Amino acid sequence: MKIVDLLTPAANLKVVITGGAAGIGAVIAKAFYEVDAQVYICDIDASAVERMKLEHPGMLGGVVDVSIKQHVDRIMAEAMALLGGIDVLVNNAGIAGPTGSIDELDAHAWEQTVSTNLNSQYYFLSKAVPYLRQSGQHPHIIAMSSVAGRLGYPFRTPYASTKWAIVGLMKSLANELGPHNIRVNAILPGVVAGERMDRVIGARAETLGISFDSMRDQYLEKISLRRMVTMEDVAAMALFLSSPAAVNITGQAISIDGNVEYL
């Protein structure tokens, strides 16, 4: 086999992607769909799920609030019934959480960020791992963290706390599941161009009392390459990590960020 052939994931991989109807999750779902994977997406936005399914014939999907275990149990039972198993789990669902100083943060907003970003990873893992153990396709888990999972992030402590925790979860699971031939890696996107990042920049600009453009320039000045990354950059890494070329890559927190130096 040529080395270049190792870079394409095997056909008919069974892939579940959380938060898969919009943003990075949707781009990852489309990427796997383009290489003939069997893709099941789940998302809280019912209209977005239906739109993805209409635009990509054969793509499967359902509606779920990932912060509620009973919802996840239901959606995973449906996904496993339709797919007949799983080879790749992309734990992508997450929210930005509140912006503000620690003494001003709303307790409910903190708890919702932890439930959505961190607890949901456990809910899906607990259901997926027994099926991943049965996969013969180099089973793989991708945990979506963030550059905020390796750097301090003032005024965004709920978000950063969950993203650091996800890296710890990934590292521990890589050790735990390695003997079962299940690989576990985390992707740490940096400043990703798009509407969500615009909202984050706007919220932080308001907190600091400066203009949107000034805040955006501050973000870019912290990046060695002085540019944002794209959702396609992140999706490409997800595909690579699920390809035969990556069968010995596990336990890694891989930044896709142009080298963000500080936040």
TrEMBL record:
<dbReference type="InterPro" id="IPR002347">
    <property type="entry name" value="SDR_fam"/>
</dbReference>
<dbReference type="InterPro" id="IPR036291">
    <property type="entry name" value="NAD(P)-bd_dom_sf"/>
</dbReference>
<comment type="similarity">
    <text>Belongs to the short-chain dehydrogenases/reductases (SDR) family.</text>
</comment>
<dbReference type="InterPro" id="IPR020904">
    <property type="entry name" value="Sc_DH/Rdtase_CS"/>
</dbReference>
<protein>
    <submittedName>
        <fullName>NAD(P)-dependent dehydrogenase, short-chain alcohol dehydrogenase family</fullName>
    </submittedName>
</protein>
<dbReference type="Pfam" id="PF13561">
    <property type="entry name" value="adh_short_C2"/>
</dbReference>
<keyword id="KW-0560">Oxidoreductase</keyword>
<dbReference type="GO" id="GO:0016616">
    <property type="term" value="F:oxidoreductase activity, acting on the CH-OH group of donors, NAD or NADP as acceptor"/>
</dbReference>
